[in-house]
Recover the amino acids of this structure.
């Protein structure tokens, strides 16, 4: 079977060989990307889960910042730092009256949602190759099939014979690219759907983490002067949104 398949590949023209090589390269790239993204998603999910466990029963901003310092170099720590940057801007904007109304909380939550959307969009950007391959690979294979059929029928016209022994080699060469396109497209589509489900799971973890941070921020507002001083003394680098 392997010898016969290799013989068919060897007998194809340059165009068909180029299409097969292109599909092979795309397949290798898709599998490598899928394994890399799966590993990265697994690490990020573990980071978010650990962060949620660390934020249980937080007592004040000092305790919050102390726990953040433990995970500041992690994926979850960077997200929390961006949330705290927005919170710090809110405190500075209301430093004169030490009052935070519902509108301020709505703006803070909207800004946090923007960070969540940006994080999810960044994760989804990895899947562009998989979705494109799943859609384009069958069409590339079909192009190779049409090209091969044209050459096969031209060969039949030259031999002036439609015998099955004359037709079969050309048809098999033509259909080989369709098979290659499906071999690339089907796994790419499955990997894309699987990783999309992982992204939705990570998105939910981020939303839960943001809600937990928001509740902690609401709790520390009982003493505005102390909370501002705590954030200024913190060794954790807190990014502020522009």
């Amino acid at each position: 079977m392997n010898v016969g398949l290799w013989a068919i590949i060897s007998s194809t023209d340059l165009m068909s060989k180029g299409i097969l090589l292109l599909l092979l390269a795309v397949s290798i790239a898709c599998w490598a990307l899928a394994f890399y993204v799966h590993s990265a998603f697994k690490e990020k999910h573990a980071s978010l889960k650990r962060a949620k466990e660390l934020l249980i029963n937080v007592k004040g901003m000092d305790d919050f910042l102390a726990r953040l310092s433990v995970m500041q170099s992690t994926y979850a720590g960077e997200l929390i730092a961006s949330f705290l940057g927005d919170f710090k801007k809110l405190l500075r904007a209301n430093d004169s009256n030490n009052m935070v109304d519902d509108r301020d909380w709505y703006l803070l939550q909207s800004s946090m949602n923007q960070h969540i959307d940006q994080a999810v969009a960044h994760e989804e950007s990895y899947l562009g190759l998989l979705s494109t391959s799943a859609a384009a690979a069958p069409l590339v294979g079909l192009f190779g099939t049409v090209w091969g059929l044209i050459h096969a029928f031209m060969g039949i016209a030259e031999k002036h014979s439609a015998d099955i022994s004359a037709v079969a080699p050309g048809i098999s060469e033509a259909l080989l690219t369709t098979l290659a396109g499906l071999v690339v497209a089907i796994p790419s589509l499955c990997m894309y759907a699987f990783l999309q489900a992982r992204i939705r799971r990570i998105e939910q973890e981020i939303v839960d983490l943001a809600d937990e941070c928001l509740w902690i921020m609401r709790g520390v507002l009982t003493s505005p002067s102390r909370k501002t001083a705590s954030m200024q003394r913190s060794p954790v680098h807190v990014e502020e949104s522009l």
Q: What stands out?
A: Residues 37-233 form one domain.
